[in-house]
Amino acid sequence: MVTLLIIGPAGSGKSTLTKSFGKWLEHEGKTVNYVSLDPGAEVLPFTPSFDVRSMVKVEELMLKEGLGPNGALIRAAEIIEERFAEVLEEVSSLSPDFLLVDTPGQMEIFLFRTLGPKLASSLRDRTVSVFLIDPVLMKKPNDFVVLKMLGLVVELRLGIPSIEVVNKCDLLNVDSVRIIEDLTKMDMEGLSGSLAEELRRIIDKLEKKKRTLMVSAVKGTGFLDLYKAIGEAFCACGDMT
Ligand SMILES: Nc1nc2c(ncn2[C@@H]2O[C@H](COP(=O)(O)OP(=O)(O)OP(=O)(O)O)[C@@H](O)[C@H]2O)c(=O)[nH]1
Ligand SMILES: [Mg+2]
Fold first, then answer.
1. What is the atom index within ligand 1 of the atom nearest the CA of 106?
2. Architecture of the domain delimited by 2-30+95-234
């Protein structure tokens, strides 16, 4: 079994990719199960085998405890952490070829508290994170550096292989494509330009062998490349069987 933790900033397309890449895998003859760890989700575009909202819902906490959206989200995260053993039991009971885990809209709930690191270290074997870069947030080269750094933070925090994916590539304009395809040729801009330049050097050094993948969760493009990258994350031959 391969487990994919789908991670990214709010609105980057995590839930849409979970659904559409899952459908693609099913079409390729793989068995797929879906998990949602987002206590704040309103509707999900896929049918989860385990949905953390069966334990706690942000909306209900707001009503019951008189909290605002952020307070309720933090409280929800605490409750999930307290009941982590149950979450792990639910997730571990599944054994499809591919387990696709959609993570909370606010990625800090998953990444910077204990849920993400604990889940990653408990599953570890054949678990990979798929970090989504949202080109809507990318207006200039510096922005791409920031998002790539965030991808490295995901890898550092979770301690599992991470695949970086630019989603929504159906929305890319020529300038964004140029930035993505060759960041090294871009001029870093403004006062923070020299910092961005230094960070770009680090990214470049760390990612020598990595390709930036481009997908569209809505159009269903780039999925074969994503599938191959998942295989490569586990072994040089790319074999996932
Ligand atoms: N054009 C385009 N829109 C996309 C793509 N993927 C997602 N979207 C849109 O982006 C919006 C957010 O998508 P979601 O899948 O809900 O994103 P998310 O990361 O799960 O959002 P949160 O869980 O709320 O953080 C929706 O309107 C999607 O239709 C894509 O590949 N192309
Ligand atoms: Mg979502």
1. 25
2. 3-Layer(aba) Sandwich (3.40)
